[in-house]
Design brief:
Number of strands: 0
Strand content: under 5%
Shape: globular
Largest sheet: none
Structural class: mainly alpha
Length: about 200
Amino acid sequence: MACRPPGRPGFRSSTMRRQQNFLRKFRRPQIMAIINPWQLFDQADRLIAEAGGQQVDLRRAVSAAYYGLFHSATIAASDFIVSKSRRNHREWSLVSRSIDHKDLRELCKALDQPPGKYRPFIPAMGFSAELKDYARAVVELQQKRHDADYDPIATFRVSDCKSLVASARNAATQFKSISVDADEWRIFICLLLFPPR
């Protein structure tokens, strides 16, 4: 069977095929493995149980516990802006990756005593105890994670690590229990994504 020359119906050059394949891949949603906060908490529990007092495992457990809290916020924000049904799209990932650890910490610190730039956005009834508990846990766990990852002389005890993981899991549960229709939840997510200047 002979190839049809260019310009004839049905002819597709190799360049044209490559371009069409590229465009097809670009439009196709990518399958992404969403980081599951609960799996991070479970990983932290396993690391503690298997640590045998080894600091490297205890440090990794503290880090995993913090990242469970962090990803609770990134998932909530991405679902709010893009939609839970579009988690396998690039724009969902874009929102998730735009969240900065420093911005999360500053916002969480501000929930108890908001500085001036946050005051106009505070709900009339203030923030709930559940959201404030989540915020306190984020601030505490982020500091412990910094110690675990960067302070070579920090030491961690099994009992302290178990307590931190339990605190993180509880805070994430409380955060998840806040209705996505609640004003405070929307305000928190908007302030996280668009911090006031």
